[in-house]
Structures are given as structure tokens and as C-alpha cells.
Amino acid sequence: MKQFHCSNCHERVFFESSLCVHCGSTIGFEPPRMEMVAFLLPGAEPRSYCANASHDACNWLAPLDGNGLCIACELNEEIPNLSSPERLQAWKLLEKAKKKLVYSLLRFNLPFGPRRLGPRALKFDFAEGKMTGHEDGKITINISETDAVERERQKKYFDEPYRTLLGHLRHESGHYYWDLLVQDSPEIDTFRALFGDEREDYAEALKRHHEQGPKDNWQSTSVSAYATMHPWEEWAETWAHYIHMVDAVETAEYEGMSAGRNREVDAYREESFENLKARWVPLTIALNTLNRSIGHEDFYPFVTPELAYEKMAFIHRVIRQAGSQ
């Protein structure tokens, strides 16, 4: 993620900010400009927060011609009962993670909203008693995932090196974009050559994975053990890791943490996957070493094989093609 600055005084602010502590301006994220805008100033264009700002759940500006919701919040179909403080807090954490996902979709110029896609727009359910996943264009996240203790329990139960709300959202968005960008497209044969044949029975693949575990050689082919369960999961896991890569590289370069590079090189629009990879690998080594030096777990607890990078390169190309349209 890039750095943000108050449009009034140009001091640094953050993606989640609603107040510039330097000049006191009320600020909000303006998606078309990808900037933090001070909007309650004398002579400024009349603007307003998304309606969900009333719950302290959103700091984005609503479109002037919309329904009072920002372009991220209008994607919600179900949210928790906000009369409960615990559910309200869970929803706010989910919205915070979702905004980071939507930021990436905007930076890639990928279609996701009703203005571009109509009924095929991305949708979200944040609910209790539902299984986290994706189906027919809708991403569902069980709000229990916002409980750090429960999330750690699930992480250990499934023997996962990494489990976060943002990771879930990026993974499930991969399923959405497989349907949108790969299924029934000229890319399907290349997809099958790299990821496998998605026509394999999903229920049988899931049963086999739970009973037998991942394939013996998964470390040489995939970003994670779960990725070997079925080609759809291979794609979604790789898609999520690709977004991790791009956003982390952009963040590091804006923070001056990538030697020999500068933020004028746009990680989200980088034409060469090899250039992106060359910036990513030393960054993960440096940050893993830094985390270890103060007693934390690795920043990026994965060893990515070359075949997985080939799959990321395919995703890189698919995203670039879609974003250029």
C-alpha cells in the first residue's frame, strides 16, 4: 500500500485515518483519486462519508450519485446484528480487511462493482453460522474468524503457517476472479496445464485431502499444502500470495525498505513478473530475519518453489490483461 497524505496540509496520514492530527481536517479515502481528501473545508466541494461511518466502520467517501454507501460497502449483502458490541467490533475488523482487498482491486483496475459488472458484481456476507467460502460471486466470512484466539486454534488445527482475515479475503477473491477471468476464457487451457483440471470432482478432492493430507511433493509445486487439494484451491491460494507479494512490495518501497528501488516503480502495474519477483524475494528474507531478531514468527513463513512462481506469473499476466481493458 502506498503512503497517504492529507490533501489540505500534505502531512502523512494513514489509510484508516478520518482525522489529520496535524491540521485538524476531517479526511476520507476518495477511491477515484486513491487519495485521502480533506472534505469539510471552506469552499471545498460538498462530500460526505459512507453511511457506515456512523458505526465507525468506514472512512471512505460516498459517490455523489450513489445510495449513501461507498463503493466497498455497497458490496455487502449481509452483516452482523450491530446491536451487539461484540458483533459490531467483529464487523469493523472485517470491513478494515475488506477495504485493503478493495484497495488492491482498484490498484489493479479489476472490475468488481455493480457499475461495471451489474449482477455479476462481487458480494459479501459477514455472518454467524455460515461457512467461510465463495459461491456464485459472493464471499462469505464467518465472523468467528475475527476472534484472534479462535483463529489461532483453527490455524493449529489445520496446521497452517498463516491465517488472517485479509488472507481469507484475498483467497476467496481468487475464486471470484477465476469465474470472471479464466472460466470459459481463452486462458483455460494454460490454466489447466499449470494448475490442473478443475473438472475434477471437488467433493471427492476435499474428502481425499482431509483423509490423506496433501500430496507428498507439495513443497516443490505449490505455495501451500492446501493448494494441492484441487485446482480451484491451487489458483485461489496462489492468487492470494500474488496479492501479498504486490502489496508488500509497494508498501516496502514507499517506506524506503527496498534497496536500489523507489516508489516511482509501480508494483501494481509492473509489466515484468521477474522484476516483481526480484524485489519480493530479498524483502521476505530481510523481514523474516528482522522478525526473528525480536522474537516474532516469520513475516512470510513460506518457501515458494519455482513452479509456484510460474503460476504467479500466469496470474500476473491475467490480471494485467483484465486491468488494461
Describe this structure in words.
The two termini are 23 Å apart. The chain is built from nine helices and eight strands. By secondary structure, it is α/β, with parallel strands linked by helices. The mean pLDDT is 93. Strand 3 and strand 4 form a beta hairpin. It is globular. The protein has a domain of 143 residues. The strands form three sheets. A four-stranded mixed β-sheet has the order 5-6-8-7, covered by helices on one side. It has a two-stranded antiparallel sheet with strand order 1-2. Strands 3-4 form a two-stranded antiparallel sheet.
Taking the sheet with the most strands, its summary is: 4 strands, mixed
How many beta-strand runs? 8
Number of separate helices: 9
Q: Helix-strand pattern, N to C?
A: EEEEEHHEEEHHHHHHH
Structural class based on helices, strands and sheet pairing: alpha/beta
Low-confidence parts: none
Terminal CA distance: 23 Å
Could you report the average pLDDT, rounded to the nearest whole number? 93
Shape: globular
**Proportion of helical residues:** 40-55%
Strand content bin: 5-15%
Q: Which sequence of strands runs across the widest sheet? A: 5-6-8-7
From the alpha-carbon coordinates, what is the Rg to the nearest angstrom? 20 Å
